[in-house]
Structure formats: C-alpha cells, structure tokens
Design goal:
It is a single chain. This protein is an alpha+beta fold. It has one domain: Nucleotidyltransferase, domain 5, CATH 3.30.420.40. The protein is 27% helix and 26% strand. It is built from two helices and four strands; from the N terminus they run βββαβα. It has a four-stranded mixed beta sheet, with helices on one face.
Length: 105
Amino acid sequence: MFKIFIDTTERENRQVILYKDAEILDKVTGPIDIVTEIKKLLEKHNLTVKDISEFKANPGPGSFTGIKIGITISNVLNWALGKKTISELQQPEYGGEPNITQPKN
C-alpha cells in the first residue's frame, strides 16, 4: 500500500514522502513545488495517482499559507480520486491567528 505525505509547514523546507506500507520508499525535501515533485516521484516508481491509497498533509502548526497549500493539495487528490468523502477531509491546525507580513526583498 502506497501513501504520500506532504509537509508544507516550513516555507523553504517542504517535503513529499512516498511510503510503501510503513516504510519510507522515497523523499524529496527543499524549496520544492509539491505537485511537480509528486508527479516526479510517481513516474520514478512507475506509479499513478490511483496507486496511492491516501494523501496526507501535515496539518500544522506552521506557515499559514504553507499549511493551506499542503492541506488543499492532499484534500483535492483524496476527494477527486474517491479516496475520501467531504466529511473525511483534513482540516488545518494553524495554532493561532495568521501573522501575515510583507516579504523581505
């Protein structure tokens, strides 16, 4: 059984981890594009999204926008592939109100 774990709680250290049963099969870390890296991992291991039994994201706390991105990707894939119903989808755990600041140039 294959699963993909998405962690976008840190802006510059995102992760996509491919599990086979309970063991890590492959992992990509860094300032990555999550969807692109999922596609690359699937291609590398000759898998399709239908082979993944569950997509799961780190619900937080962490980067407000990052958490929203990870949860959204995970939820869309789980729902669109019929793996979870709307009521089973993950909810973010922000750990507080968002602290939105302008990026530093």
